[in-house]
Design goal:
- The structure is a single chain.
- This protein is α+β, with helices and mostly antiparallel strands and 197 residues long.
- The chain contains 1 helix and 10 strands.
- InterPro entries: DUF2911.
- This is DUF2911 domain-containing protein.
Length: 197
């Protein structure tokens, strides 16, 4: 009887040890698989020109600006990275677009409700602002002056402080008026608009 008990104890001890070994091996395999899955995934770096948007309500008018926001990254942007007197899509990658559900009056001219590509022609002393009917294009690849709906000029505002990432703002003056501004590097531009009643 003692012999059988002794054998049973040995058998249980052996089975227990081998089960622990199997569990340990299974855990090691799972850990290895997880490690290989992790190393197989690409590094998720922050994009250099993140896609973003800004919007505001001015009375009943909804203004929406959609753009990619490049960084300065220690570069001379205007007159360097972006040559003066050349059309710029006012963002990175796809052309910046502006959409409004009401007619706006800008620079004394009517801009009908709709969706527009937003382009600029930067220069040292004066910028040309352009609303173009072709809003869905990569950069300025398909830009054509004949599709311009509205063009006008503004004076750039130069600052000592650097705005690292391109930023647009739509600001409310009152229920009928607002401003749209663009800031990047040491330059800002701003223009007023009225909601057509």
């Amino acid at each position: 009887m003692k012999k059988y008990i002794h054998l049973s104890v040995l058998l249980i001890a052996f089975l227990g040890a081998s089960c622990k070994k199997e569990v340990k091996e299974v855990k090691e395999v799972v850990v290895e698989e997880k490690a290989s899955e992790t190393s197989a995934q690409p590094d998720k770096k922050k994009p250099l020109s993140p896609h973003t948007s800004t919007m505001a309500m001015i009375g009943d008018a909804h203004i929406h600006i959609d753009y990619s926001s490049p960084g300065v990254r220690n570069r001379i942007v205007f007159g360097g990275l972006l040559a003066y007197d050349q059309v710029w899509q006012a963002g990175a990658h796809m052309a910046t677009w502006v959409e409004m559900n009401k007619d706006l009056v800008i620079d004394g001219k009517m801009l009908p409700a709709g969706k527009y590509g937003f382009f600029t022609i930067p220069s040292k002393d004066e910028w040309t602002i352009i609303f173009n009917s072709n809003w869905d294009q990569h950069g300025k690849d398909e830009y054509d002056k004949k599709d311009d709906v509205l063009r006008f000029k503004v004076k750039p505002i130069i600052s000592d402080e650097v705005t690292e990432h391109l930023a647009y703002q739509v600001n409310k003056i009152n229920d009928n008026e607002g401003t749209i501004s663009l800031s990047w590097e040491k330059v800002s531009i701003k223009f007023n608009f009225k909601v057509n009643q």
